[in-house]
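thread: overnight batch results

M.L. [08:02]
morning all. the overnight job finished for the chain we discussed friday. pasting input first so we're all looking at the same thing
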Amino acid sequence: MATDPHHLLPLKPVELQLLLALATRELHGYGLVREMAEASAGVISLEPGNLYRVIKRLLGAGLVAESERRPAPELGVDERRRYYRITPRGSRVLASEVDRLRSLVTSPAVRALSRRGVS
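M.L. [08:03]
and the structure it wrote out:
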């Protein structure tokens, strides 16, 4: 697996949102769906099949990993629920994507659009 995160850029919007959701804590599938929908103001709303395709892709790229965390049995939650976490590689790729986007939105072309009142 290549160590340079730039070859994985640009991330798809759904991949970016998923990595951002995992940047601060481990989440299970339903938690990811809720977090991503809230963070994107409802723009990203995934059905379970689509979510798990994205997770599978990010697992394969080494950007996320399945966590060892399992819900406590006394909570009455399905013990098969899987939690996911961002990996160090995923954190590097996420940071590179955020840097890439930051440079894009602060570019002269975007500043020129802002001055013309285009939004």
